[in-house]
Design a protein that fits this description.
It is a single chain. The protein is α+β, with helices and mostly antiparallel strands. It has one domain (3-92). The chain has 3 helices and 3 strands. It has helices at residues 3-17, 39-45, 75-85; strands at 51-54, 58-63, 66-72. A hairpin with a 2-residue loop joins strand 2 (58-63) and strand 3. The longest helix is centred in the N-terminal third of the chain and has 15 residues, at 3-17.
Length: 95
């Protein structure tokens, strides 16, 4: 399983368990070095009607000015975020 497949599997598990939403067929595109429009953010933003901020170690989910959930990222997700921000997945980048 390649890195993108692992990320998609992880994102779909979170979508199901946390957001009770259907799985994605592929990773969405995103903006490098932007925690509010990166690939990981975009996996969840459409599924959840609240503000989401992604950093390399966790995703914070806010609603009505209070934090409602924290998703801690496994190391392979942190690596994917770093690799994406480093330009290793140009096919996922919104330009």
């Amino acid at each position: 399983m390649n890195s993108k497949d692992k990320v998609l599997k992880w994102a779909n598990r979170i979508r199901k368990e946390v957001f009770h939403k259907k799985p994605l067929k592929r990773l969405p595109r995103g903006v490098m070095e932007d925690g509010q429009s990166c690939v990981i953010h975009n996996c969840f933003a459409a599924a959840y009607d609240r503000d989401i901020l992604v950093d390399p170690e966790r995703t914070l989910i806010y609603g009505d000015s209070f934090m409602t959930d924290i998703i801690h990222h496994p190391l392979y997700i942190q690596k994917f975020i770093s690799d994406f921000d480093g330009g290793e997945y140009p096919e996922l980048e919104i330009k």
